[in-house]
Amino acid sequence: MRKRLDRSEIELTTDLKARELRFEEVPETEVRPPAQTERENLPEEVEPDVTYRNPGIRLRIASARADADQEVQNDGLERPEESDVEAAPRKES
Predict the structure, then answer these.
(1) Into how many domains does the chain fold?
(2) Is the distance from CB of 39 to CB of 56 less than 8 angstroms?
(3) Per the domain annotation, does 74 fall within a domain?
(4) Of 20, 36, 54, 58, which one is least surrounded by beta carbons within 10 A?
(5) How many whole angstroms from its chain centre is CA 33?
(6) 77 within 8 A of 87, measured Cβ to Cβ
(7) Do 27 and 33 form a contact (C-beta atoms < 8 A)?
(8) Domain limits for position 34
(9) pLDDT grade for 1, boundaries at 50, 70 and 90
């Protein structure tokens, strides 16, 4: 069930398991990159009023820093050149 993404520098993985899982209604779900899910004993499309035994879901979110030219601004934070993010001013101590 374990599979690593190439070039990932930051990775968050969580495993969810249950003895039984039952849905009264089919939920609306969506997984967007860079997230990935792997299911065990649970179909991609669940059915209402069906009890699933020993289901498991692994959720993985992995990402890599932008490799391209990084620009260091006066506040010392690295950002991609096209970034429009501004840091809050530093407080003097």
Answers:
(1) 1
(2) yes
(3) no
(4) 20
(5) 8
(6) yes
(7) no
(8) 1-64
(9) very low
Q: Biggest alpha carbon distance in the chain?
A: 61
| Assigned domain for 76 exists | no
- Report yes or no: 21 and 48 within 8 Å, Cβ to Cβ: no
Using left for φ > 0, alpha for ψ between -120 and 50, and beta otherwise, residue 7 falls in left
Q: What gap in Å lies between CA 21 and CA 54, rounded to an integer?
A: 8
Please give the pLDDT value at position 18: 96
- Name residue 65's amino acid: R
C-alpha span between 49 and 22 (Å, rounded):
6
pLDDT per position as a tens digit, 34-77: 888 999 999 989 999 999 999 999 999 888 766 534 544 455 55
The mean per-residue pLDDT over the stretch 22-45 comes to: 90
pTM score, whole prediction: 0.54
3's tokens: 């599979």
Token pair for residue 77?
């934070």
Structure tokens at 32: 């967007």
